[in-house]
Amino acid sequence: MHGFDTKLTDEINFFVQELEQAARDAGLEPCTTIFELVDYKQLNEIAAYLGFPTRYPHWRFGMEYERLAKSYTYGLAIIYEMVINNNPCYAYLLRANDLVYQKTVIAHVYGHCDFFQKNYWFSKTNGKMLNQMANHGTIVRSLINEIGHDKVESFLDCCLSLENLIDIYAPFQTKTKKKDDHTAEEINITDDELKLDAKSYMDTYVNPKEYIARKRKLLEEKHSKDPLLDSKTNERDVLNYLLCHAPLQDWEWQLLDIIRAEAYYFAPQAQTKILNEGWATYWHSKMMTKLYPLSAAEIIDYCDHYAGVVASVPGQLNPYKLGVELLRHCERRWDEGRFGLEYLNCTDPKVRKLWNKNTQQGQTKLFEIRKIHNDVSFIDAYLDEDFCYEQKMLIYDYDRNRGKYVISSREFAEVKRKLLDQLTNVGNPIIAVKDGNFRNRSELLLVHEHSGQDLKQDFALETLKSLLRLWKRPVHLETRIEGVSKRISCSGSDHQIERI
Amino acid sequence: MKMDSDLNRFHKIVRGKIKKELRKFIANGELLGRQGGKTISIPLPRIDIPRFQFGQQQRGLGQGDGEVGDPLPGQPSSGQQQAGDREGEKALEVEVSLEELADILGEELSLPRLEDKGTKNIEAVQHKYTGIFKQGPESLRHFKRTFREALKRAIISGTYNEQAPTIVPIKDDRRYRSFRTVRKPETNAVVIYMMDVSGSMGEEQKQIVRLTAFWLDTWLTRQYTGLERRYIVHDAVAREVDQDTFYRTRESGGTLISSAYQLALSLMEKDYPPAIWNIYLFHFSDGDNWSGNDTTECLNIMNGNILPKANLFSYGQVESRYGSGQFLRDLEKNFHGQEKVALAKIKDRDAIIGALKVFLGRGH
């Protein structure tokens, strides 16, 4: 796959097999996992491409590579593991790591692989993403040859600027819209009927796959709602809306489609960061200390390493730490029977402290959590007051007078609310298309569902410009700025902000 | 590496950013002291793809000890910390070679390449390996070509066996690298910096000189392979100093500009025969010469000896509270329209860029 030999050494290969067996014995169900041994340059390169050996060309991968290379050189950050959600999974080990490190990483990777396979939120991702990414690369490269590098790149910049305008729950919705017989008939036409007339040997040129795909999509969209209904909608998958309604040239359509597909592929990873890392950390620590224990000589190195993984910086939450601690908290609660009405209604701190019904359901509970939860639902369901207190969670605010960040609250309800706020829609503002024919002038209206936090305004303006590039008619965004409802409009080089 | 083409695209964008910010860099001197060997590290605002995202928040979540009301541990203790710099806003540091920077400067100011003044008679001899010969010393044998010839011969003669592909070159197959002697005109250049350090030159004036000299240096280094620098400070008397002293010396007392020109001339005569050397002189002063007589003396030295030998004589006048600025007017009167004399008034830092253009814009 790469220029250099990435085969595992016999020694590491031995541990890979041992640890996989240990993982399976413990009930994990990872798919086949292929490990590769790479040096730091290769690892930085792979990491800049988010784990995929072949992607479409874009400058930001170069920027990311340079950042990683620099932080490695200065010893600021070393990539700890890299594993991609694919079937088979690919995972990368840094050649320079010592054996304790390698074993830990291997165990950690099996945690992730199990999660990719079994967590509901990953159930809609493409198991052959490695291939699809490579295909995306091929398409973009050929478009570059055809259209020109600058044009393609600047259009990609526009698409990427809109990349987070997807509906992360869309893949899990089943379409329940009723279709009448007539449309059902039309939508059932075959690919052949969609084709333009062409001699058989010209067919692949006249009717390329992308063309048929686009036609079908337009058709489906047309029939998924009443054509006579007005242009008002509430579409959070803005990218899809653009694919269906924006006046795009074929090559533009293809690029946007690629960006959207990749955005949906990566979404579950952002959605389950805490739980996924927590799960992998839980298992690597369990394997290294109980299931496939390290020798006494190795344990100090391991602890040193583990301390680094779960280290917390006062101003931030470490997803590894938060995840693994909350999982352990759940395990303890279900092992000791600290659940159900009786426990929840108990207010005597002494009784609560000594509560132990010896139910031993911890493991079962953990596997249930890994199966159905994402970060938001996980935190919502299990982060309780005891945990908040034990973990010393806090909220801080900036104190202008003192010029410092000051701890402002340790109130459970506030902390939890703040955390859930941060995780909602993977930290992105909720924005939907409201009208594709705004003012009856084919202008596009987006509405930001304001939840207490303003948008970064300069970025919002730049993003609207990208949107304008795709929509080719004026675009508008309704949001709130410092408590006042406003509409930001962009219709070319200038913009205006008006009160509504 | 696959990354190379993406890295290239990124560097191209960075280069564009530097060009855009160049005027700012020239004026605020941020790049001084960021030089390390052959590269310079340039701070740029982070390059981001804009998205709809939330603005900076002053409120955050954390974990750790402390009572409500206590400052969050791990912050710098100075109360001067700017709000909102806890996360994000990380600047990008890019390493750029000095040559690259000079090129960007040249493009931005549309500077012409400097023309060598006819020193073509001095030549350096170089060997370039360009050709392939059938004879030559064994040490220059071209292995790849030799084996390719042998392979060709084997295939043609039918002795090539795919199962046991052994290739043995014979004498006829041997190929040798051959060299060609190229005569390259040697270009040497010297820059003589002169600065007035009399009492009337303040810190800000010196900083302006320093900034200007930095960019002159960058450009000239790019143009000539072996650039030498000499530094002269003067008040009523002139002396040669090293670079560091040049920028630090502060004297009081009067100003006799001719002393510096006299010293520069003797340096030129001693070390830099004009037939071999491209000579650049840059003089910075607040233009307050002691007397008209001395100015006449300066003009004599320039006309008689310096100008015929030098490529360029540049005078930059920085403005100080005490300076009358008369010297610039005198020079303007005498050298108006002279190709080899470049005169500029550097009022403040923002004027540096204009001065650079005047000094370097003539292309010789």
Descriptive notes:
The complex is a heterodimer of chains A (500) and B (364). Chain A has helices at 10-25, 40-48, 59-73, 99-118, 129-147, 149-161, 181-187, 191-194, 203-206, 209-224, 238-245, 250-271, 273-291, 296-309, 319-335, 340-345, 349-354, 362-372, 375-382, 385-390, 412-423, 457-471; strands at 33-38, 82-84, 89-94, 232-235, 393-399, 404-409, 430-438, 443-449, 475-481, 484-490, 495-499. Chain A has 22 helices and eleven strands. Chain A folds into four domains: 10-119 and 272-307, no CATH class; 178-224, no CATH class; 313-424, no CATH class; 428-499, no CATH class. In chain A, α15 crosses α18. In chain A, a hairpin with a 4-residue loop joins β2 and β3. Residues 177-183 of chain A have low confidence and may be disordered. Helix content of chain A is 53%, strand content 13%. In chain A, the strands form three sheets. Chain A has a six-stranded mixed β-sheet with strand order 4-7-8-9-10-11, covered by helices on one side. A three-stranded mixed β-sheet of chain A has the order 1-3-2. With 500 residues, chain A is α+β, with helices and mostly antiparallel strands. By secondary structure, chain B is an alpha/beta fold. Chain B folds into three domains: 1-47 and 92-108; 123-183, no CATH class; 188-360, von Willebrand factor, type A domain (Rossmann fold, 3-Layer(aba) Sandwich). Chain B has helices at residues 3-28, 98-108, 143-157, 203-223, 243-248, 257-271, 292-309, 326-335, 352-360; strands at residues 35-36, 39-44, 60-63, 92-97, 123-133, 176-185, 188-196, 226-234, 238-241, 277-285, 312-318, 341-346. In chain B, α4 (203-223) runs parallel beside α9 (352-360). The longest helix of chain B is centred in the N-terminal third of the chain and has 26 residues, at 3-28. Chain B is flat and about 95 Å long. Chain B starts with a helix and ends with a helix. Classes of the chains: A alpha+beta (500), B alpha/beta (364). The interface between A and B is large, with 75 and 51 residues.
